[in-house]
Amino acid sequence: MQNSPLSKIILEEREFFVKRDDLIDPCLAGNKYRKLYTLLNTPDNIYDTLISYGGTQSNAMLALAALCQKKKWKFLYYTKKLSATQKERGSGNYAHALKLGMQHIEIENDFYKEFIASLRLHVNAKTCFVDQGGAVQEAKAGLKVLAQEIQEQSRGLHVKAVATPSGTGTTALFLALALPEYRVYTTPCIGDSSYLKTQMRALAEIPNNLVILEPKRKYHFAKPYKEFYEIYKALHVKGIEFDLLYAPAMWQALLEQTSEKMIYIHSGGVSGNESMLKRYRKKRFVSDCAKIS
Question: Where is the active site (predicted)?
Fold first, then answer.
């Protein structure tokens, strides 16, 4: 695969370069491609089953479903119990993952945490277990490749800062370790900085060049916010669509708390916008939502 390209945009009179990892693959794009790089390069006959867990609109879930379809592996995905409405929805990452062959197993909410903790104890040599969001040590290899691409493409651009939003923080952490000469910005999109640091420290020590920007107000993950839609729309008119779950919080933090030129790593995940835009319409935060979607 060739390096994903850089696009230049001007936002609020600032110049940004966007690393277009969203163009890698319709389902295996962005940070999920980087995190799953090792598995993508694993011979098909090493495993016959992959097991993971998490939310039903997860970008990681869709990426794993696409990977397993390519590898011809069985994909078992565990979640908490779904509502009737969630099951009936015929759109979004959940529906796409089912079409790719995902086998979905629901666990009663009261037993979910204990059940997930016991899952890895019952896997065999032909089964691959992937933690929620792809937060695994194997992700380091793919982020090292990304770091090399950034080093090559940023020559002559006078850029020494990159940015990527965080769920588990895996991408930001391993990217910062692979790019010690760069400042790596991130912001917590799930929980706060304390929670994010705990997730990161489970994988490695946090390097000094990793800068965590704390949002100026508390946001609930996946909840529609008018200001997030405004950022999404402002970026969209520049010719690039970003996801509505992670990107708005990162862009908001960058615009409010930084000033230097930088490379923004596009995390992909735009397939989830189909279901998110429906929620924005339902909230009636905007009247022109349909024009962009």
Answer: 58
